[in-house]
Amino acid sequence: MRVSDLVVRRIGRLTSWALPVLTDAALVIRGGRVAWVGADRDLPPDLAELPELDAGGAAVLPGLVDCHTHAVWAGSRRDDFTGRLSGAAYSPAGIHSTVAATRAASYDELRALAQQRITTMLGTGTTTAEVKSGYGLTVDDELKLLDVAASLTGPTVTTTYLGAHVVPQGRDRADYVDEVVATLPAAKARGAQWCDVFCDEGAFTVDEARLILTAAARHGFGLRIHAEQVAHTGAAALAAELGCASADHLDHVTVDDAHALAAADVVAVLVPVASLYTRSGRWGHARTLTEAGCTLAVATDCNPGTSWCESLPFAMQLACLEMGLPVETVLRAATVGGAKALRRDDVGHLGIGARGDLVVLDADHETDLLAHLGVNTISRTIVGGTPNG
Amino acid sequence: MRVSDLVVRRIGRLTSWALPVLTDAALVIRGGRVAWVGADRDLPPDLAELPELDAGGAAVLPGLVDCHTHAVWAGSRRDDFTGRLSGAAYSPAGIHSTVAATRAASYDELRALAQQRITTMLGTGTTTAEVKSGYGLTVDDELKLLDVAASLTGPTVTTTYLGAHVVPQGRDRADYVDEVVATLPAAKARGAQWCDVFCDEGAFTVDEARLILTAAARHGFGLRIHAEQVAHTGAAALAAELGCASADHLDHVTVDDAHALAAADVVAVLVPVASLYTRSGRWGHARTLTEAGCTLAVATDCNPGTSWCESLPFAMQLACLEMGLPVETVLRAATVGGAKALRRDDVGHLGIGARGDLVVLDADHETDLLAHLGVNTISRTIVGGTPNG
């Protein structure tokens, strides 16, 4: 991780979350961390030697935090896409074709594909990204994917072991669950910080998920869970029971689930691109979760089958326009909300001491990131004080 | 309009609509027009002197035709956007705030804003664009907007007089309709080829629209109509009665309307970004229109209040994912469909003699333009044989 000094001047509107929105602002990063924030005219005089970036009156936000991505895969799911336009329903079984293509790809091929996606994420404003395995589904292939994920540069990457994505074809369920559990120490040694389970109809049951995640907690993993996407199975309640850092998807969440998540401080991760891509027609869960007082995050769920999208702003736009969430709620969900889903308090905001991760918009108001569709409104992404990654 | 010679080689998949999709193809443009299409290995030998573009195995499509845009405006409709997230319904009355900002802007300011939007359209694949007036609503301001529209470069632009966008504040309805009719000759002299009326609840009645469009036809304008967006008013039936080139929006179209449009050869222009942006929840009309046998086009409706989006691929993605239209239907709607809505037979396809307007994708399959969200999958746009406009 490069850390730099930088003065960002002439910020039209600065959203730091640590202060009210500041106009005509400046921000100083020293050693990769925010050292000063205030009015441009009040900038301390002893900064002459620091590199300077002129924001030209543009709006600045904390760097975006994408807390749910499956960015390491090979192959295409074009057929799933066209099939759903003919009325086919989403099924987790489509994952198997990506597993076959991913197993067939070399480390270098996978790394090149994933790095291209991560670089696209950076260009659309993401400064911290979670990246899951899950398209290997053998011990060696899962560890290869974790190695690829750990090698990615640009945004700060945290990696998640998702051996429990689906039961691989030709494998006995119970044997495979045992293998996932047995692989936890090796996954941890590869740097994986999180363990995730796709707990849903067509994937893993609540009991299987409990077994895997309980073992993962013993091995020091933080816990995440794919919950209530395809059907209501009780995965959200399990997330609350186990104190997962996040429960993700939640299209079929109930009011009781939502209250349980809020009480257990489990972040509710919305992935609206997946709802669009699978043509689920489900958007109401965002309001259910908000009304229960859950902390929300929004993420891309970047993956080949149900959300081929690296752009967190695109997901944020759907969170507004399809889920009906207000602008500030969505901006918080994509910054501090994502950070909380990753149990980070040093990113997602620009208070003193935070990492110097921020985005400069090609717009003078932060709302335009959400209101201007179909274009990239991010003009510069700064990670640890270093412009453009 | 620049016209050039160009050989495009190593096309992975060429969709010309004149032939089945060709793989490993090449295409020759002479004097701005398609002169040869075929297998790369069969390229005629006498082309050594022509400039060459190596598509590197990428997919190539005809240049996109965006047949409905309001690209000339000043000011922001940020407040309408945030208001709708709080549950406010769309109303044409929001247009008045854009009218005020647009009247206050100089020709040069408007031209710079509109040119930036048109350049963004070009970068996202649009090689032919229709541009409407409609935010002036005085004789002088409407003519100023038509002058701006006619001055735009990049895609080939055709301009539309939309004096009948809404009745301006402080004006008598009947007087204003008379003024619109009286302005037709001056609008024609400014190069406007089309006359359009926003015929809907809160805008103009069917009788007012009939009066304006009938007069426009006498003055040699082609006719277009904003129909059945806010409510069902009979505007689609009027489009069929008058033989309009297109009827646009159509969210509230009936089965009878759809059959009337098909019988009268009126192109049905889908603008799904507006449906998303106004949070109408209406998507089913696309199927109604398809089932009636209408020719479909898809357009951005680029405007500040209800579709702030220059990207036709973004609109096409919604046509697939929200409207449930198949990939080929949407690709045709954005190329030959848009061309037919503008009564052009020389764009939207790549048959021999067509204009050399095409897009090279950053993908090896045309489906990826629709399946890969949140990024710009257009790598090169070629207008009249000239790469990147």
Describe the structure.
The structure is a homodimer of 389-residue chains. Chain A has 389 residues and is of the alpha/beta class. Chain A has two domains: 6-63 and 350-388, Urease, subunit C, domain 1; 64-341, Alpha-Beta Barrel (TIM Barrel). The first copy, chain A, has helices spanning 78-85, 95-104, 107-123, 139-151, 173-189, 206-218, 235-242, 255-263, 272-277, 285-291, 312-321, 327-341, 368-371, and strands spanning 6-14, 22-30, 33-39, 52-54, 59-62, 64-66, 126-132, 156-164, 194-199, 222-227, 246-249, 267-270, 296-298, 358-361, 378-383, 386-387. In chain A, a hairpin with a 7-residue loop joins strand 1 (6-14) and strand 2 (22-30). The radius of gyration of chain A is 20 Å and the shape is globular. The termini of chain A are close together. The relative contact order of chain A is 0.18. Chain A binds chain B through residues 76-78, 81-82, 85-87, 120, 124, 273, 276-277, 279, 300, 307-311, 313-315, 320-322, 324-327, 365, 367-368, 370-376, and chain B through 76-78, 81-82, 85-87, 120, 124, 273, 276-277, 279, 300, 307-311, 313-315, 320-322, 324-327, 365, 367-368, 370-376.
Distance between the termini of chain A: 10 Å
Q: What oligomeric state do these chains adopt?
A: homodimer
Weakly predicted, low-confidence segments of chain A: none
CATH class of the largest domain in chain A: Alpha Beta
Q: Helix and strand string of chain A, N-terminal first?
A: EEEEEEHHHEHEHEHEHEHEHHEHHEHEE
Question: Helical residue percent of chain A?
Answer: 25-40%
Main beta sheet strand tally, sense and closure of chain A: 8 strands, mixed
Query: Any idea what the CATH architecture of the largest domain in chain A is?
Result: Alpha-Beta Barrel
C-alpha-based Rg of chain A, rounded: 20 Å
Strand content of chain A: 15-25%
Mean pLDDT across every amino acid position of chain A: 96
- At the fold tier of CATH, the topology name of the largest domain in chain A is TIM Barrel
Q: Give the largest chain-chain interface (CB within 8 Å).
A: A-B, 40 and 40 residues
Structural class of chain A: alpha/beta
How many beta strands in the DSSP annotation of chain A? Answer: 16
Number of domains of chain A: 2
Count every helix of chain A, treating DSSP H or I runs of 4 or more residues as helices: 13
What is the 3D form of chain A? globular
Tell me the name of the CATH homologous superfamily of the largest domain in chain A: Metal-dependent hydrolases
